[in-house]
Write a structure and sequence with these properties.
The chain is an alpha/beta fold. The protein is 43% helix and 13% strand. The chain has 20 helices and 16 strands. The radius of gyration is 26 Å and the shape is elongated. The structure holds nicotinamide-adenine-dinucleotide (NAD).
Length: 503
């Protein structure tokens, strides 16, 4: 008989009482399920119960839970002195050390202990579920249940389908995940699962941009925060998670996808790791930190020494640029007077390519990224050898209407277009290869990584044609396979279909 995931007296076993196990036990208990915790270390399970009691008490003190609900949750928690004590559990979630051999041993033991209809799930972040299950006889009831740290605050849970996981088990875990107060997404058993894979583009493209000398890490962070609405810039984020965590994860996922260049990181990442600049934890990373751990943010925003331009010429017709220029009050000349700045807002093109394509005077050409939050933060770029006075006068113009202005070096797609297109392309590729549904990919990115938009919906937000154009231009200009557009994106852009349209 199959397990009823909705049954009132559902019992959850948690193996491993560390940071994750504690959180999983807490959300199970607050979700009204009985919980029994086992840990191989003496006293660890009891310490976890004490810890969860104090967390629940704090939640009640903050009026986020009624006192009687808190008492009810606390009464649901118990400890086990051996794995055998988990025999009447309906679901066992393993959250022990990230070691394939030890996990396989625990799963082999558990399948002999629990009832035939019980589900056994792993909270692993990086080991293939099918690889753990390969040690077991009854593989249909083995799946991944991947939570995020800190579990009580992070709403997302990835339900990971191993090669042999039965559909009933996936459905049951979806229901149980909801009972735990989480938002479940159904994910394929592939390197990095959903969130860890989807998060690669943001940081690796930022590392490339900085390595090419286009902008500093602090400028990239400011643009991504202010113009694009990310809660953290990619470099602050890498510092927070630790370079010793995100560099190896990037390498595992890159190799897991057989060196797909779209997932590659850059030597700067490895250099930081080798230098021991691991981020917040070593009080030195891309940023420096004060003794008390406070991040030291260098001033960003380029200094502007010129008066705003009074006349400009448009490089080519652009509604968004014309609207922006109208707000600055600048006169837009019908014909080039041979001395005024020539302004443009290219999609995925650098100033060099643009001036070549249109036969423009590259010295006076200044490009503005009007396609991403320009009123919050304007990014301006020019080709090598550009006339500084022209660039400065356009920057001064932007300062009249924007919260901040950053001048970067010539770059196809500026900073924001380039990073956002890479995030969107990866989201679309994940939809194409069935890592999850496009809707679940979006949920995963927003809840798991706090992205302002899901990575698939981002393509639509930027315009799927524009996103495709940015990638095609990047690919053509750099000659790199890294910018190869996903077929999911290409088809929906060319057919003018909504980006979530299924295959
Ligand atoms: N920490 C995170 O941010 C995070 C996020 C998602 C998933 N994960 C995954 O969750 C799992 C646990 O991570 P964590 O950060 O809680 O680790 P942790 O080191 O805090 O805790 C692991 C616990 O497992 C116990 N343990 C080790 N071997 C055991 C065994 N054979 N039987 C029973 N108990 C055993 C240890 O005594 C320890 O208490 C790992 O697979 C990790 O990859 C971690």
């Amino acid at each position: 008989m199959a397990l009823d995931p909705g049954k009132q007296d559902l019992k959850v076993g948690v193996v491993g009482a560390g940071a994750m196990g504690r959180g999983i036990a807490q959300v199970s208990a607050t979700g009204g399920m009985s919980v029994v915790i086992f840990d191989a270390a003496e006293g660890a399970a009891a310490a976890a119960v004490d810890f969860i009691h104090s967390m629940v008490d704090r939640t009640v003190e903050k009026n986020r839970m009624q006192p009687d609900e808190g008492e009810a949750a606390k009464s649901k928690l118990g400890t086990a002195s051996s794995l055998e004590d988990l025999k009447d559990c309906d679901l066992v979630v393993e959250a022990i050390v990230e070691n394939i051999d030890i996990k396989r041993q625990v799963f082999q033991s558990l399948e002999k202990i629990v009832r035939p209809d019980a589900i056994i799930a792993s909270n692993t972040s990086s080991i293939r579920i099918s690889s753990i299950a390969s040690a077991c006889t009854h593989r249909g009831r083995i799946a991944g249940l991947h939570f995020f740290n800190p579990v009580p605050l992070m709403k997302l849970v990835e339900v990971i389908n191993g090669t042999d996981t039965s559909a009933k088990v996936t459905q049951a875990l979806e229901i149980i995940g909801k009972r735990m107060g989480r938002v479940p997404v159904i994910v394929k058993d592939a390197p990095g699962f959903l969130v860890n894979l989807g998060g690669r583009a943001y940081t690796t493209e930022a590392l490339r941009i900085v390595s090419e000398g286009v902008a500093s890490p602090f400028e990239v962070d400011a643009i991504m925060r202010d113009a694009c609405g990310f809660r953290m810039g990619p470099f602050e984020l890498m510092d927070l998670t630790g370079i010793d965590v995100n560099y190896p994860v990037s390498q595992i996922i890159y190799n897991g996808y057989f060196q797909d260049k779209r997932l590659s990181t850059y030597p700067l990442h490895e250099s930081m790791m080798e230098a021991g600049r691991l981020g917040r934890k070593t009080k030195a990373g891309f940023y420096d930190y004060a003794e008390d751990g406070t991040i030291i943010r260098p001033e960003t925003g380029s200094s502007i020494s010129a008066e705003p331009a009074t006349k400009v010429v448009l490089a080519e017709p652009s509604e968004s640029l014309s609207a922006l220029l109208r707000e600055t009050g600048v006169a837009v000349l019908e014909t080039d007077d041979g001395s005024s700045p020539i302004v443009a807002d290219p999609i995925g093109e650098d100033c060099t390519a643009l001036s070549n394509r249109l036969g423009l005077d590259s010295k006076r050409l200044v490009s503005i990224d009007t396609h991403t939050g320009v009123y919050s933060h304007a990014t301006v770029m020019a080709a090598p050898g550009a006339d500084d006075g022209s660039v400065q006068s356009v920057m001064a113009l932007m300062a009249k209407v924007s919260g901040g202005v950053t001048r970067i070096k010539d770059c196809p797609g500026f900073v924001a277009q380039r990073i956002r297109a890479m995030i969107a392309n990866l989201g679309c590729e994940m939809a194409q290869i069935g890592v999850a549904t496009p809707e679940d990919i979006d949920k995963g990115m927003k809840l798991g990584l706090n992205y302002p938009l899901g990575s698939v919906e981002l393509a639509e937000n930027m315009g799927s044609r524009n996103t495709l154009q940015i990638l095609e231009n990047l690919q053509a200009i750099t000659g790199e396979d890294r910018y190869r557009p996903s077929q999911w994106l290409r088809r929906r852009a060319l057919l003018e279909l909504p980006i979530h349209t299924p295959d």
